[in-house]
Design goal:
mainly alpha; 9 helices; about 0% strand
Length: about 150
């Protein structure tokens, strides 16, 4: 796996992907290798969300509660058009960790694609407002600036 990471640092992601594909064939139960392969498949140009989803699902067969694999699978499902299932999985993940901005944003996207616009607005707003200080202002204070600009404070 370290060789694959090094290849990525050298902008040789395709070589890393090929190496990881060989590794998951030889070591099918190794979740870390599957996760790295899935992440590379999702971030390459063009992305391969079907291939990534396959890797996330196989990782989940071995570790069903593994949060990074659950999150990756949900994001991949959103990308391949399995929007209803992605929304349900994202809702559960956000319920578990409401401060996860990326997952909250993906949940908003799922709701938007399903035509559920009010829940989409709620999720997008939660993603933007995920970090509030003790006074209820968005860190680093953008909410306070907006209040002053629009005269609501």
């Amino acid at each position: 796996m370290q060789l694959a990471r090094t290849l990525v640092q050298l902008n040789r992601a395709e070589q890393a992907i090929e190496l990881l594909r060989n590794l998951v064939t030889d070591l099918p139960a190794h979740v870390g290798t599957r996760m790295l392969l899935a992440d590379l498949l999702m971030t390459r140009k063009p992305p391969d969300p079907d291939g990534a989803l396959d890797q996330y699902e196989q990782a989940l067969e071995r570790r069903p509660a593994y949060r990074p694999a659950r999150a990756g699978a949900a994001a991949s499902r959103l990308r391949v058009g399995q929007v209803e299932r992605a929304a349900a999985e994202l809702q559960e993940l956000v319920r578990e960790t409401p401060a996860d901005v990326a997952l909250t944003f993906f949940l908003g996207t799922a709701h938007y694609r399903l035509g559920h616009f009010e829940p989409a607005v709620e999720a997008y707003t939660a993603a933007v407002d995920a970090r509030l200080d003790e006074n209820g202002y968005i860190v680093p204070g953008l909410g306070d600036a907006g209040d002053r600009i629009f005269g609501t404070k």
